Automatic annotation (TrEMBL):
<keyword id="KW-0805">Transcription regulation</keyword>
<keyword id="KW-0804">Transcription</keyword>
<dbReference type="InterPro" id="IPR018062">
    <property type="entry name" value="HTH_AraC-typ_CS"/>
</dbReference>
<keyword id="KW-0963">Cytoplasm</keyword>
<keyword id="KW-0238">DNA-binding</keyword>
<dbReference type="Pfam" id="PF12833">
    <property type="entry name" value="HTH_18"/>
</dbReference>
<comment type="function">
    <text>May play the central regulatory role in sporulation. It may be an element of the effector pathway responsible for the activation of sporulation genes in response to nutritional stress. Spo0A may act in concert with spo0H (a sigma factor) to control the expression of some genes that are critical to the sporulation process.</text>
</comment>
<feature type="domain" description="Response regulatory">
    <location>
        <begin position="3"/>
        <end position="120"/>
    </location>
</feature>
<dbReference type="InterPro" id="IPR011006">
    <property type="entry name" value="CheY-like_superfamily"/>
</dbReference>
<dbReference type="GO" id="GO:0005737">
    <property type="term" value="C:cytoplasm"/>
</dbReference>
<dbReference type="GO" id="GO:0000160">
    <property type="term" value="P:phosphorelay signal transduction system"/>
</dbReference>
<dbReference type="InterPro" id="IPR018060">
    <property type="entry name" value="HTH_AraC"/>
</dbReference>
<keyword id="KW-0902">Two-component regulatory system</keyword>
<dbReference type="InterPro" id="IPR009057">
    <property type="entry name" value="Homeodomain-like_sf"/>
</dbReference>
<dbReference type="GO" id="GO:0043565">
    <property type="term" value="F:sequence-specific DNA binding"/>
</dbReference>
<feature type="modified residue" description="4-aspartylphosphate">
    <location>
        <position position="55"/>
    </location>
</feature>
<dbReference type="InterPro" id="IPR051552">
    <property type="entry name" value="HptR"/>
</dbReference>
Length: 526
């Protein structure tokens, strides 16, 4: 129901309108009356009426002055003026204020009723327009993520854009981009520690964090193809310093275990050139291989005159170090090769991976020649190693993998020398079959064609511990790796290392390490 108040210094007129106008039939609540403009203004502030019926000439504040004050805070309030004077100045003022009507005194009830009906209709139309606008605003608000995604899709994939469509979407987002502005595109690659793609709510959290980080700069930010993409409208080069810190900011605010890499395209002028900056940013994503996660890299053209280290020379030197059993030199060669290849920063990452693939195959075959690995494997070694290389995303990860392989190979060469072949075979069997709950000294004795008692004595002499103790140690060490995967339940970890009873596994784990599996898992997270 609409609300109205009457303001007139003439009591007779005021009371007459209150009594004779059919307010309820007009669906209007009479919310108050006043005898002067000042008092009327106070009532207006308190009850916020839709319609004000007011005399023009009143002591103190007149109707025109009062109406001007009302319009400052309630621009949609409808004013009907009453006056015993057909004063041109007042009429002009009433028109300026957009008064609904100017009714002369003595008041004609039919005329004033029609004026009130007209004001009522205008109020209802105002409410309908506001409801329509609110409805449209709600629809736009609910679709802002889609509008952003659609706009970024248009601007990043082609220079052939519809200015009308782009401007309409920018209006929806309440953002103003000028065609002579400077733009850069940032693409943020986001992965969790296990290399899996994130859930939608995780992307939303990161997206909100990015928007918060760059909130003082005009931007459109959304997620696209499992990455966060931001079109940034900037003024000066201070944006570069800002983007250099974005990975640390997200890790601090969201999750320190996220693997983040920020690639930034070159600066471009104008909306139609944004796609060029996006293409450069996409190309720069491959640089994560050299710079690693947690960094921000800006696009730059590669040098054309690069002379890469000789692959053949690297392979020859590794063969020499392996044949001479020179572990230190083999390690130095891997570290030096990784350090040098980082400097070249070439786009063809697979070329770099091929160098290390060949080195890894060489290490494997040399170890196999010395009896470290079984010559009859149930998989294609080359294919297996290449698959591993493809899944290593940075040169640092490759370096770690290569050094691990070298260290393991040389450790096992040393182990062969320091212990009998029999003990080596037993350890290898345990290492492959620790998941078997029923593994025992008898099982192992059958493998090497010895009696259990003789094997036990030999093992104790060579290794310095019983077979049972060694099996327990292997199982506990293997379980530590499984505990690093938070997706595995404790029961699954126990079963994976040969314990069907998780309580017994926990007891053994604590006896060996001094802490429970759960405590170890929490310690690893930190």
């Amino acid at each position: 129901m609409l609300k109205a108040i009457i303001i007139d210094d003439e009591t007779v007129t005021r009371k007459g309108l209150i009594k004779h106008i059919p307010w309820s039939k007009l669906n209007i609540e009479l919310a108050g009356e006043a005898s002067d403009g000042k008092e009327g203004l106070e009532i207006v502030k308190r009850v916020k009426p839709n319609i004000v019926v007011s005399d023009v000439r009143m002591p103190g504040m007149n109707g025109i002055e009062m109406a001007r004050e009302i319009k400052k805070t309630q621009p949609d309030c409808r004013i009907i003026f009453l006056s015993a004077y057909a004063d041109k100045e007042y009429l002009k003022a009433a028109i300026d204020i957009s008064a609904v009507s100017y009714v002369e005194k003595p008041v004609n009830l039919i005329e004033i009723s029609e004026a009130i009906k007209k004001a009522s209709q205008m109020c209802l139309e105002d409410e309908n327009r506001k409801a329509d606008k609110d409805s449209i605003d709600t629809v736009i608000y609910d679709n802002i993520p889609f509008i952003k995604q659609n706009l970024i899709e248009k601007l990043t994939l082609s220079s052939e854009i519809s200015s009308e469509e782009v401007n309409r979407n920018l209006d929806y987002l309440k953002i103003q981009f000028n065609d002579k502005d400077k733009f850069i595109v940032m693409v943020l690659e986001v992965k969790n520690r296990t290399e899996d793609n994130l859930e939608k709510d995780e992307y939303e959290k990161i997206l909100n964090t990015v928007e918060k980080y760059i909130k003082d700069i005009k931007n459109i930010t959304t997620y696209k193809d499992n990455n966060i993409v931001s079109i940034i409208n900037y003024r000066d080069d201070s944006i570069k310093n800002l983007l250099l810190g974005i990975c640390d900011f997200i890790n601090t605010k969201v999750d320190k275990n996220l693997k983040l890499f920020c690639a930034v395209g070159q600066s471009e002028i104008g909306l139609k050139n944004i796609n060029k900056s996006f293409t450069a940013a996409q190309k720069t994503l491959s640089k994560v291989f050299y710079y690693g996660y947690g960094t921000t890299v800006f696009y730059k053209e590669n040098r054309k005159d690069i002379e890469l280290p000789s692959d053949e020379e690297i392979q020859t030197r590794m063969s020499k170090h392996l044949s001479e059993e020179n572990k230190d030199e083999a390690v130095k060669l891997i570290k030096k090769t990784c350090r040098e290849l980082k400097k070249y920063d070439i786009d063809d990452v697979n070329y770099i991976k091929c160098i290390f693939f060949r080195l890894c195959v060489k290490i494997f075959r040399e170890a196999n020649r010395r009896g470290i690995y079984d010559s009859k494997t149930n998989y294609d070694v080359d294919e297996h190693i290449w698959e591993i290389m493809l899944n290593l995303n940075t040169i640092d990860e490759i370096e770690s993998y290569m050094l691990e392989k070298i260290n393991k190979s040389f450790e096992e060469i040393e182990e062969i020398r320091s212990s009998s072949r029999t003990i080596f075979e037993i350890k290898k069997f345990i290492d492959k079959n620790y998941k078997d709950e029923n593994i025992s000294t008898k099982t192992l004795a059958d493998v090497v064609y010895l009696t259990p008692s003789y094997l036990s004595a030999l093992f104790k002499k060579e290794v310095g511990k019983t077979i049972s103790d060694y099996i327990v140690e292997v199982r506990i060490e293997k379980s530590k790796e499984y505990l690093k995967d938070n997706r595995l339940k404790l029961l699954e970890v126990a079963l994976n290392v040969g314990y069907s009873d998780p309580n017994y596994y926990t007891k053994v784990f604590k006896k060996i390490t001094g802490i429970t599996p759960s405590q170890y898992r929490e310690k690893y997270k930190q």
